[in-house]
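Example protein
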Amino acid sequence: MDAFFAAVEEKRRSELAGKPVIIGGLGDPLKRGVVSTANYNARTYGIHSGMPLRTAYKLCPQAVFLPVDYSAYSAASELFKGVLKETSLLMEDVGIDEAYLDITEVKESSERIAGKIKRGIFEKTGLTCSIGIAPNKLLAKIASDMEKPDGLTIILEHEITTFLRPLPIRKLYGVGPKMEGRLKKAGIETVGQITGIPLERLIYEFGNSYGRYLYCASRGIDETPLTTHWQPKSSSRETTFQEDVKNWQKIASTLALLTRGVVKDIRNQGYCAKTITLKIRFSDFKTYTRSLTLPAFTESEKEIREAAFSCLKRIDLNRKVRLIGVRASNLVRKNQ
C-alpha cells in the first residue's frame, strides 16, 4: 500500500489534501516518538519512517503531525487483504500494509490481475497500492517499490539480469544503510557490480550467510516459499517515556500495564507462554534484558506479571529509565 497510514488519514480528513502529513507516536513532534509513515509530500523534505519526530519537525515544521491510529489502519488492512484473497488464496501476510500472492494458477495475464486488484482495493478503501509481479518473492518485492505511488512493475524471467544490473545497491532488499556504506567503501555502487565478485570473496568479506545472500540476490535467485500459515515466536510490548523516569511506582505501573497487553495478545492468538523477558533502556541509552523461564506454559496474567517483576528485581534501577518493555516467548497453542 502507498504511504498506508498517511493515506488512511487523508482519506478520512479531506482538509489534509495537498499537505505534508506525518504519522507517528502521539502526534506531537515536540515529544518523543518516531515517524511511522510520511506521505509523499512530506517525503520531499527528506522525511522517512523511523526518523525521530523532532527531526521531522525541524525539516518540515509546517507538516500536519497525527498520532498512530492502529484500529483504523487495521480495519483498512482487512479490507484490502480481502481483495487479495479473492484473487488467490495462496497469500503470505507480511505486515499491516503488504502481502505476497502466488498467482501461478490464476488464468489471466499479469496486467489484468494487477488491474483487478487495484480496482478492487480502490473500491473497498479509496486507497492506491503499488504492485510488483515477478518469478519470486525477492524480485516482486523490489518491483513493487519501483513505481510508487500507484505503480505496477512486471519482471519476466528473461528480463531479470537486465532489470537488476543497473539498480543502486540500496534497491536490493536486505541492504540497509550500514551495508550500503560497506559496499560503497568497497567500490560497489550497483547490483550488477556484485555479480562480478566471486562467492568465496563475498563470504570472506560479509560472512557465510550474508555473502551467499548477496551472491544469489544480485542474480535474482530466491527460492523462499510463501508462508501461508505461521506460528508467532513471541509477543511483546514496550513504551518510551516522554520524560526519563526514576519513580518506582511509575515504572511498576507501566510494566503491569504492558504485561496485561501482552497477555491479552497471546490469549487472543490462542497461545500460552513459558519464557518472560524484561527490557530496560536507561537515559544513557544502555539497554538491559533479563529473562525467566517458568516451570510450565501459562496464559495467567498473574504468573506472567510476577515473572516480569522478578526480572525487574535483577536490574539495578540506579538511573532514570527511558524505555521499558516485556516479551512473552517460547509459545505453544493452548491445549497442545
Q: What stands out?
A: The mean pLDDT is 94. The longest strand covers residues 234-245.
